[in-house]
Design goal:
Layout (H helix, E strand, L loop, with lengths): L7 E2 L4 H12 L14 H11 L5 H21 L3 E6 L5 H9 L5 E6 L2 H14 L4 E2 L2 E2 L17 E6 L9 H15 L4 E7 L4 H7 L6 H17 L8 E8 L4 E8 L3 E5 L2 E5 L4 E8 L3 H10 L3 E7 L5 E7 L1
Parallel strand pairs: 1-5, 2-3, 2-6, 3-4, 3-5, 6-7
Antiparallel strand pairs: 7-14, 8-9, 9-12, 10-11, 13-14
The structure holds N,N-dimethyl-L-histidine.
The site of N,N-dimethyl-L-histidine has 12 residues, from α8 and β12.
């Protein structure tokens, strides 16, 4: 029988969330952090997004990972400690752990305890030789890495899904600096990045016909109401996602359908009718753009793999 690996639990407390939300609502324009999308329901809805026909990112990245795995394994080298920022559903992780040569350990760092436990339980059962060392934490903050029993040759940070694009450039550089630290001298980082292309392809991915993305965005408010006692009226807001070509990113907002007040921790915030609160960025990259961010973190792009249409890329970064 498989025993669940020991969990390092640094999950954010309701006080952390309240602090972030109060700070975001005090800004002009108002802003909520997208990292709070991923409670249990939010993680389920994100999984559902990845199955929508318009959301090409996951489908293409999985195929690309599969097609490029031999080259990735050769570039990464044997006996890696794989450290994943976010654990997702584990589909990409499974391909990576299967394809790398003799991986020693796997550490997913994931903010949602339910998503972390579900994926870790499955992976631990499937990969008996790989020590699984889960950490429940916000990976945007420094996280001490657990040490595997069998020494690894190097660390490989795995950050698929173009999740880097959910951060502003300044935050992305901070995250890349954290990766620089985690990977050590001989390590690397394997990033999945969505590439710039026609808005006709990008915009529908964030406005699917079934409305799953809209439910995902609105779930942020339901989650905050439950966890920090705010009183957002879910019928009072609607999802809006637009591709801003100059910035090369999708900008997602919750737009107030009417003038209304929202209370958080006894503080009242007024929304005008039509006021747009920013909730997520999804940056789309060019190679020079990514190289510039990496350089600010002391990293170089040393290998690149794209799908045949150049819609999505995998990039290996090293010091
Ligand atoms: C997780 N992240 C990379 C997704 C994205 O594409 O920005 C989250 C998402 N938001 C709406 N749809 C998907």
């Amino acid at each position: 029988m498989s025993v669940l690996p020991e969990l390092t639990d640094l999950q954010p407390t309701p006080d952390d969330i309240t602090g972030d939300v109060l700070a975001g609502l005090a800004r002009v324009p108002k802003r909520l952090p997208s990292k709070y999308f991923y409670d249990r329901r939010g993680s389920e809805l994100f999984e559902e997004i990845t199955r929508q026909p318009e959301y090409y990112l996951t489908r293409i990245e999985l195929a690309l990972l599969e097609a490029s795995m031999a080259g990735i394994a050769a570039a990464v080298g044997p006996r890696a400690h794989v450290v994943e920022y976010g654990s997702g559903s584990g589909r990409k992780t499974r391909l990576l752990l299967d394809g790398l040569e003799d991986p020693v350990a796997y550490t997913p760092i994931e903010i949602s305890r339910s998503a972390l436990l579900a994926s870790v339980e499955r992976l631990d059962r499937e990969f008996g030789d790989v020590e699984v060392l889960p950490v429940c934490a916000d990976f945007t903050q420094p996280v001490p890495l657990p040490q595997p029993r069998r020494p690894a040759d190097h660390a490989l940070v795995f950050f698929p899904g173009s999740t880097l694009g959910n951060f502003t450039d300044a935050e992305a550089v901070r995250l890349l600096r954290a990766m620089h630290q985690t990977m050590g001298d001989r390590g690397g980082a394997l990033l999945g990045i969505d590439l710039q292309k026609s808005p006709d392809i990008i915009e529908p991915a964030y406005n699917d016909a079934q409305g799953v993305t809209a439910r995902f965005t609105l779930n942020l408010l339901a989650r905050l109401n439950r966890d920090i006692g705010s009183d957002f009226d879910l019928d009072g807001f609607e999802h809006r996602a637009t591709y801003v070509e100059d910035a090369g990113r999708i900008e997602t907002f919750l737009v107030s359908r009417r003038a209304q007040d929202v209370t958080v921790e006894g503080r009242t915030f007024h929304f005008t009718a039509g006021e747009a609160m920013q909730v997520e960025y999804s940056q789309k990259y060019t190679d020079p753009g990514l190289a510039a961010l990496a350089a600010q973190a002391g990293l170089k792009v040393v290998e690149a793999w794209n799908d045949p249409q150049n819609w999505f890329g995998l990039r290996l970064l090293q010091r």
